[in-house]
Every structure is written in C-alpha cells, then in structure tokens.
Specification:
4 helices; mainly alpha; 0% strand
Length: 94
C-alpha cells in the first residue's frame, strides 16, 4: 500500500535526521515509526508471559550481587526530601 501525506518542515527535518542517524532509507524509517505507533509500546508486543517477566527482572538485576548492602539507618526522610516534615522552612537548601 502506498500512502502520501504532507509533512511540516519540522517533521520532515526530524524524519530525515533520524534516517541519516540510522543509516536507513527515509521510507524504511517512516514505516518503522508508523509500525511502532500502531503496536503496543511493550518491547514484547503483547502481554508479557511469566517466563519473559522473570528474564526481564534477571536482566535488570544483573550485577546487583556486587552492590554493597546499606544499613537501613542510613536512610531517612531528610535523605530523600529537602523540606522538613513539620512544615517549617520549605525553601530548598543550597
């Protein structure tokens, strides 16, 4: 199927830049972008199965065994938020 449409100069420039960056023909990049827009944003296309989910978690956790354990006492509200919980001075620290 052939589809024709007019692009704004800004969109055209972005499409050309993307095609050059990928080293692909303009038409192929446009087709890929259209396919991505029409499919689910999940990298697996559809709902992820349990095995795929566990593989994804394993990939995300790769190297975590070498991280140091932090004592829970090293975390406090103040270590995450700059404003005091009592509503006092709420200006950010510099």
């Amino acid at each position: 199927m052939t589809i024709r449409f007019d692009l704004s100069p800004e969109v055209e420039a972005r499409l050309i830049a993307e095609a050059r960056a990928q080293g692909l023909p303009l038409e192929q990049v446009a087709e890929q972008l259209l396919m991505e827009a029409l499919t689910d944003r999940s990298p697996y296309g559809e709902k992820m199965g349990v095995d795929d989910f566990h593989r994804m978690l394993g990939a995300m956790a790769g190297g975590a065994e070498t991280l140091k354990d932090l004592p829970t006492g090293s975390f406090s509200r103040a270590s995450f938020y700059e404003d005091p919980i009592d509503g006092g001075n709420t200006l950010p620290r510099r």
